[in-house]
Amino acid sequence: MTIKNVRNLRRLSQIVFFLIFFWLILKTNFEVNFDASNFGEIYLPYPVSIALQFDPLTALGVMLATRSLYQGLLWALVILIPTIFLGRFFCGWVCPLGTLNHLISEIPSGRLRRKGESIIDSNRYKKYQRIKYYIFFFFLTAALVGTLQIGLLDPLPFLARSLGIAVLPTLHTAAASLLQWVKSFDISELSAVSQFVYNVISPFLLAFRQVHFHAIFSIGLLLIIVLLLNRIFTRFWCRGICPLGAMLGLFSRYAIFGLKKDESVCNSCNKCLVHCQGADNPDIGSVWRQAECHLCLNCQVVCPESALKFKFFPAQKDSVANPTGTPVVDISRRKVIASLAGGALLLPLIRSGDVLSVNANPLLIRPPGAESEERFLARCIRCGQCMRVCPNNALHPTFLEAGLEGIWSPILIPRIGYCELTCTLCGQACPTGAITELTLKKKLGDEATPPTRIGTAFIDKGRCLPWAMAKSCFICKRWCPTRAIYSREENVYDRLGTPIAVKQPQVDLYEAL
């Protein structure tokens, strides 16, 4: 197989893995109506969390934060072990956010399109590429002391959250609005065509139900900023920000597969720099930085003199190395120490004003099966899977309701949607075990098993019609699925002293879930 065919295989790999990731996000919902006909154990038909369980950074962060490894995260070894031998193949061949970033970087756009020397210069190694290592060490230390913030910038949870919480709901709203706008012209033929198009795309791109998420603006805005930065720096996120890329770069230091340079035949055309994705200095005369290479193989393909070749056990003189010949990563020891110190101080800093045990937000209702707040924040990676799979749109990303430590973690908002009694999907979709996968028996309970409680409802007597205005109302009793509400007849008196018999609702705390 020629090197061009290998490069084409890499491009195909990027497309396939991106489509698989996108498809799993689309399928993170349950396309049924909950009613008496499907009362019973319900399971997701697809392993929607598996793409996130392949993430080595998520696995490492959860392991450090909880001192244990969630079983599903062992899939991360499939990525980590080959990286030790081959290098950062994940970044160039698999990562869906890396694929999206590179696609945005390559779109021609007039004045923003870089040319000639500016492309060559932008694809040389820059000092800002160190930043991702400091971010990695910062988040790693924070996880070690008990707060898992890696999911904020880890590319797989970041993209899952952005697509599932911001992009897809926005597309759904836009498609429905456009359809109604076209139909408003009252042209039967045009309405029929638009409805046909809508019906064709809806099974593939639109959710079973239209959903609306709290804090969607902040999540969508961050995605837009990340994508736009690629117009200034090629794959800026991958080169300078991505903590997973930093982790894989550190593990690829000793990779036995690398770049071999033949100075005798090079004509200094710099085509290798024009097409380099990782800014790892593949050109002759510069020292190649193995930890930054995405293994895109572009430099070898475009070299007209075949001066560049990837091979096993290349000469160490072609790579950045210390005096002993061991490859090194370009980071400052002082800044690493500062990153470690910052990560260690993060937990006491963000909890000093809001101690979870005594000052937790009473309106912060976590999904059923969620761990205690401290353990929950040590596992949740803010991927948004539980929110997207919720059939009643009850789960939403927080903004500051859980403090800075819990930003974008799931919260149940009863005014928007209720927790479906027979649903256990959020635990099935959670990739890290932050939400325990409940059985229906464990959620509902029985004579021997107490139910899983997410909170207890109380009557707001200032708003309740029987309590506040002496008017009959049985809505809550009629709709309560656990029969935890009963009524008690009481005599109240109007301003003339006339007794009025009213049945006032009461909550049976022994029956309430």
3D architecture notes:
- The chain has helices at 3-26, 50-53, 56-66, 77-86, 89-93, 96-106, 116-122, 131-145, 155-183, 188-205, 216-229, 236-241, 243-251, 271-274, 298-302, 333-351, 356-359, 373-377, 385-389, 425-429, 440-444, 465-468, 475-479, and strands at 257-261, 308-312, 395-397, 410-412, 485-493, 499-507.
- It is mainly alpha-helical and 513 residues long.
- It has a domain at 465-507.
- Strands 1-2 form a two-stranded antiparallel sheet. It has a two-stranded antiparallel sheet with strand order 3-4. A two-stranded antiparallel ribbon has the order 5-6.
- Helix 1 crosses helix 6 (96-106), helix 8 packs across helix 13 (243-251) and helix 9 (155-183) packs antiparallel against helix 10 (188-205).
